[in-house]
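so im writing up the methods section and need the Small ribosomal subunit protein uS17c record in one place, dumping it here so i stop losing it
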Amino acid sequence: MKQVVGMVVSNKMQKSVVVAVDRLFHHKVFNRYVKRTSKFMAHDENNLCNIGDRVRLDSSRPLSKRKHWVVAEILKKARIYVPPSAPVSQNVSSSSVSPTATS
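--- predicted struct ---
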């Protein structure tokens, strides 16, 4: 059974996620390592994955036309960013604003 590790990039489907898997390979002409990304659709039975989670996928029988991976484990949960609440704006009195003189 094949296993890959990747990052969840989409979870907008029911019981499915899209996982981006990075890999490095050696380019023979340029003699450098090149990074390539593949996207796999994976089955997430309980809808536990969120965008940014690091997950391990196991191969499985074909579950649909494009889905033949299953989320085996969530390795690291994504940190959820909560922006600070905006301060309540105070009414600005007209006297504090000085008009510009035009001559």
